[in-house]
Amino acid sequence: MRIYHNQLANQLQKQLLAVWLVFGDEPWQKNDALDNIKLSAKDQGYDELIRFSNDDKFDWNQVYNEFQSLSLFAEKRIIEIDLVNNKLDDRAVKTLSDIGDFIDGQGQSDVLLILHGPKLDASTSKKKWFKSLDKIGCYIPLYDLEGKSLSIWLNNQCRQLKLNMDSQAQQLLSDFFIGNTPALAQELQKLTLLFDQQFIRSEDLEQLLIKQSKFSPFQLTDALLAGQLEQCNNMLTQMKHEGVVLAQLVWIVHKEILQIEMMLTRIKNGENRDALFKELRIWDKKKPLYNHALNNVTLANIKRAKMRLAKTDLISKTSSDFDDFILLSDVCLTLYYGDVTQNLSLDYEYFA
C-alpha cells in the first residue's frame, strides 16, 4: 500500500499495519510520520522500541534474531531500522525478504517493523524485498514541501494550531523559512503563544518574526547545482540579513564553477562520468546534483559566469553603491541562462 504523508492520520485510525516504509529527504514530514506511527503503536501495546542503523559494520543477523526472539520486557515490540543510504548487501536483502515472508505467513505480528531512509530511486521500489514488505505494509514516500504543496501544508498547520493570519503573512513565513520546514513548524508553535487566536497581519509578523532559516555556503552550492535558482536568491537574501561575508560565498561559488568546468571538459574529451565521480570522491547523495548541472550547464555559460563573478568580486571590494548579494545571484542565474544575462550590465546604476 502506498499513501502520502497527509493521508497517514486516516490510515492509522483504520489499521496499524505490521510494516512501515518511510523514505524521503524532507525532515519535518519524516520525523512527524515516524513519531505518529510509534505513538499509535504504543497506544496499541507496542511498549518496547529497538533501534538499528545500517552502517558499514551492521550485522543483519541481529535484526532477524530479534524479530524471532521473545522479549523479556514487552509482549509487543517496535523494530526501527535507519537504512542511512539505502544500500543493502545480499544478507540485508535476504533478511528483509525473510521477514516479509514471515509476517505474511503469520498474519498479525507482535513485532512492528519500521524502515526509513533517504529518497528511494525507482529501481529500489521494484525489488523483491521491497515489494514483499510493501504488500503487507505501507509505503510513505516523502517529497519536498515547496510551492503549492508548502502552501497546503502551511494552511493545514495553521488550521490545526488555530492560527488566523492573512495570505501575505503566510507568504512571509514561507519566504523566511524556505528549505527549513522544521524551523517553520517551530515558528508556528511560537506564534500560537504570542497571538493565541488573534488575527495576525503580515505587518505584525514582519516585526516579530525571528529569522531561523540559516543557510550554509554548501547549501547554496547544492541549490546551484540542482538549478534551484529562486532558492539560491532567497538563500542569498537570508545570508545577507545574517551578516554572512560575501568573500566566503564568492570563493565557494568560484570553486564549484571551476569543478563543473573541469568535469564538463573531461567528459567532452571522452572520460566516463561515473569514473570521474569516483576519482573526485563525490558522494552518492551529491551525484544527482552534479548530474543535473552537467546536463544543463554549458562551457559557454561557465565562461560568462566566471567573468561576472570576477566583476562581482571587484565591485564588492571597490564600491558601496551596489547590492553585492544581488550581483552574486546574477552569477548563479548566468550559469544556466548566460545567453540572457550577457546582455545585462552588472553595473545596473548605469544601465539604461
Automatic annotation (TrEMBL):
Taxonomic superkingdom: Bacteria
TM regions (residue ranges): none
Q: What is its EC number?
A: 2.7.7.7
What residue stretches are annotated with the DNA polymerase III subunit delta C-terminal domain?
217-318
Alphabetic keyword roster? DNA replication, DNA-directed DNA polymerase, Nucleotidyltransferase, Transferase
Entries under InterPro entries matching the protein: DNA_pol3_clamp-load_cplx_C, DNA_pol3_delt_C, DNA_pol3_delta_N, DNA_polIII_delta, P-loop_NTPase
Query: Domain DNA polymerase III delta N-terminal spans what residues?
Result: 21-140
> Pfam families in the record, alphabetically?
DNA_pol3_delt_C, DNA_pol3_delta
Provide the catalytic activity annotation. DNA(n) + a 2'-deoxyribonucleoside 5'-triphosphate = DNA(n+1) + diphosphate
A molecular-function term among this protein's GO annotations: DNA-directed DNA polymerase activity
**Is Nucleotide-binding there in the keyword field?**
no
Question: Would the keyword Cytoplasm turn up in this protein's UniProt record?
Answer: no
Q: Which family does it belong to?
A: Belongs to the DNA polymerase HolA subunit family.
Q: This protein is called what?
A: DNA polymerase III subunit delta
Q: What is the scientific name of the source organism? A: Thalassotalea fonticola
Name of the coding gene: holA
